[in-house]
Amino acid sequence: MDNILLAKTGIVDLHSIKKYTAHGGYGALKKALSMPPENVASIVTESGLRGRGGAGFPAGMKWKFLPADRTKIRHLICNADEGEPGTFKDRQIMEFDPHLLIEGMTIAAYAIGALHGFIYIRGEYDWIAKVLVRAIKEAEDNGYSGTNILGSGFQFCIDVFRGAGSYICGEETSLMESIEGKAGRPRLKPPFPATAGLYCEPTVIHNVSTLAFIPFIIENGPDAFRAFGKPRSYGTNLFGICGHVNKPGIYEYPLGTQLRKLIYEVAGGVRDGKRLKAVIPGGLSAPILRADEIDVDMDFESLVSAGSIFGTGGIIVLDEDVSIPFVAQKTAKFYAHESCGQCTPCREGTNMIKFFIDRLVAGKGTSTDIDQILRLCRYIKGSTICALGDAAAMSLETMVKKFRGEFEALLKKEQP
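The structure assignment produced for this chain is given below.
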């Protein structure tokens, strides 16, 4: 198949601007700067590009929410936090093809009228942050970033902002609070970032791979992008496949590729010839699917119809030996630890769920613990400022409902 984001995989030292430009890099930026910004925005809108960070919101539509007055300061932020367990696709772009991200950001900034941008990267990606800083310096030295880009008069500067490794800072409003020097806690919405974002100024936030698609779209046109994928879910996606498969890794395939194909053909099937037990299809927050539910297309709408979500496209494969209560215990521990504590249902609820699961796994559960977990999940969903509470509740609720027998077995002090 043809790739978009990984089309240049295998080129040695692609992270250097010399190699990037030698293989056509920054050609899309030159083309974009020859057009009015509104035309660039229209091309991206026509492509049907949707965000690859989890929500799947149309990129072009997000730009339309900006105030009409382009003389006001606007910001562009690249969300490179990538803190969800099972999600590791964006590091591939940042580490090995950083100029692709810089080019995509610069084109997006030109289209929306932003003069300044941030790449918000989690603290654990220390070496990747250094790669990005070097690449930005190269781009500035060669006229692709900074002031008067390619003699066009347009200016756009990018700073790399390193977070402290808090999962909640992957949420867009928490991310902005973090950049502003405050505790990384989500804001109430509305107002949305397009009208009151960073420093209360209009702001657009996209994740890494969303921005990295833009050079291809500008260079080849919206129809070329729409040739991949399926209606409403156009383009390709980077699928990070991990867990009990023979060939874990990052693979680029069109949206709509069947989950079964990704597991058994692309990733080489379940490790050691064992049977598949379950799959978490979109990062840890995605509701779990049983082995008999993997005949589903990996796109936004199909996964919702199957009772899960596309999320980040990070696929976690679990074989027959995995204890789902053990997975639930680790999941509950993660969300209880990462809750910012601002909302009572999330702060107290995730900790109470963790308490009940810990007690069950320890063989000390009571007959009401399972229903208490499900009751807490219902209370958390839809009652918090951000989606962390929903993510915890959705994932844990489905684990308990779909594999209830394993939780009940713990009450009998039997191992599932």
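Interim note for the steering committee: The radius of gyration is 22 Å. The mean pLDDT is 94.
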